[in-house]
Amino acid sequence: MASVTLENSFQSTSMDMGSNHIKAHAKQHKYLQENEPLIETLTDNKQEDNSVKLALKYAQEKAGLRTPQSWFKYNQTLRKSRRKSSYLEYILSVSGTFRTAKQRRLANPKTNKKTREKISREMNAILSNDGVPLDGSLYYISNTEIYDSMTTQQLKKYRHFEAETFRKFFNSQTFKELNPQNIRSEIHYDESGALHLQTQDVWFHKDKRGRLSYAKRAMIKDALTKKYGSTEALQDRLDVLCGYHRYVEKKGKQIGANRADTMFYDFIEKHPKGHMGNSSKVNKDGTKRRFAYSKAERTTRLVELWRIEQMRELGKIAEETAKSMNITYHVDRTYQTDGVHLDSAAYIEHKKVHKKLSQQVQQGQMVNDVAKSVMSDLKKSYKELTNKEITAKSPLEVAKKLKQATQATKNEVTTNQSTIETQQTTISRQNEQLKAQQQQLQAIQHQRKNEQAEIKELKKQKMDLQTEIKKLQQQAKNAGLIVSQWIRRNWQQLESHFRDYARDMSSAQNERLFGGNEGKGDPYNAQRYEKRAKEGLLASFEHLENEEVERSGLSNAIRKSINKQNDNNLER
What we know:
This protein is mainly α. It contains 19 helices and seven strands. Helix 8 crosses helix 14 and helix 11 packs across helix 12.
């Protein structure tokens, strides 16, 4: 017999998957078999990929999360009071409700220590994931106690069966329906524990108004509603599950007793459209209600029903795969533990303490037996001495009981003091975490101020550039008008000089090609014509410039500058 288990939390990061996982478990290959990979990637990604980047890519392409570019444009359209200072702040706002609920439970004094520690680890993981909550799940169908009872060949075949089961489960319709935003799935072979399937999911949900938020429970509700066909069918099943949990809580989770989930599914298989009996739906005033249990209680069972559906499908696939591979495997239907649900390290410590207490109880029983024997001897001696039955407790027994009570009180005080110190340590750690989060918030606010100052400076530079461009455009327009007017005003004189220039250049070309006595070209005469053409044209320009200078009253210094420019033109 074997148990199918599913561990699920938001403590997952990129360090739990791919090449990071291989590095972390490099020295934990106790059960790794020959030719087995360290990990087997089932999703379409590489071992070295970053889980946060995979999650953001999925959310941006398929869930409606804005990319940094589209967010920047959208952010500019919002009122200043609603704008986010950075893309990170936008990501945090999407998961804001989810994180606030976690923070509220963490701050609630009624939340037990173990839950607070778990939530604190989850919040730290979310911060290390740049504000993206990664929902990590681990699926097991065996434990190492089964491994230890096998030979090498048996273990190799058994682990092959486990891996094949996880592959089939990953490709099953149930897994796809209940994990619609799975971004990463791997089979891990390289740990000291049993071979298992490890996954990472996100839960980005769009409401009817198109608003995006991180809402695992809402996504699970949608998935289960689709699976069962209607909201009413889902609520009926949640109602039945609540009923079996009440039954188990009343009886107690005794080892060997049927589990709540197996009793629930036995009922559902017999009555697929079943619901709680009408007798359980009667109010105190005699009126009837639709469901036996409140909406709040049914809602708390949503995630559990999501887990049950997956564990049941995984168990069925495991039994079918084992049968096809001629392996003995059956899923337990009863409670196999003492009902204390802890993580691996805490559970091992709990078992050690439980064993120590059992030994102490046995020792106490032995002492009690010895005390009874001594008391019997004392009574016998008393009767032999006095020939009377003792009817009152002896002073020795009273002193002994007093000593035991004193020791018990001392133990209780010691235990209470230890508990207080542990709680103070936890509170101090939480205060440090809160301080770190406040520092991060201050850093974000400082970054926002800097970005706003940069934006203001860029806007000013933009306005200055626009003004300068307008000035240059106006100057170019004015220059064009001046040149155009000058040409039109002097065109009659320019036209005859351009004709002379064209005639001389044509003569130069003719001399270059056909001049000389032999008609093969005369470069010397060609150069003379070219020089005469240039000098004649420049002289005409100089004549026009002199007239302009005389009309404008320019000084001799300016005339010299014009002559120098003409000399440069001749040299060119």
